[in-house]
């Protein structure tokens, strides 16, 4: 059995890379003057986002090897926490009280389900 620190590390990699991947894809699409396959294939952000999504999927598969599905899957909701944090700093999106409360509830929920 894998130790707790290793599982936690894989969880962080899974959730952070999934969130960062989505945000990189968003950045790449925002940079395009128009939607065309040629422009998409020339955009480095699209490649970075795709790589991070694949990394997230692979580490999620590893996580499923060591945790019950009923625990592992709800823990991936931490991706939403990373998304709120990263989008605040990168895209300068506003943090409302509702978003902050939602993040706190997700963290509490993950903690409860992991016990």
UniProtKB/TrEMBL annotation:
Topological type in the membrane: Multi-pass membrane protein
Chain ranges of the EamA domain: 8-114
GO MF terms, alphabetically ordered: transmembrane transporter activity
InterPro entries in alphabetical order: EamA_dom, EmrE-like, Small_drug/metabolite_transptr
Bilayer-crossing regions: 44-64, 71-91, 97-114
UniProt subcellular location: Cell membrane
SUPFAM superfamilies: Multidrug resistance efflux transporter EmrE
Keywords associated with the record: Cell inner membrane, Cell membrane, Lipid A biosynthesis, Lipid biosynthesis, Lipid metabolism, Lipopolysaccharide biosynthesis, Membrane, Transmembrane, Transmembrane helix
One protein family per Pfam: EamA
GO biological process: lipopolysaccharide biosynthetic process
Cellular component terms per the entry's GO annotation: plasma membrane
Domain of life, source organism: Bacteria
PANTHER family in UniProt: 4-AMINO-4-DEOXY-L-ARABINOSE-PHOSPHOUNDECAPRENOL FLIPPASE SUBUNIT ARNF-RELATED (PTHR30561:SF9), SMR FAMILY PROTON-DEPENDENT DRUG EFFLUX TRANSPORTER SUGE (PTHR30561)
Family label: Belongs to the EamA transporter family.
Protein name: Multidrug transporter
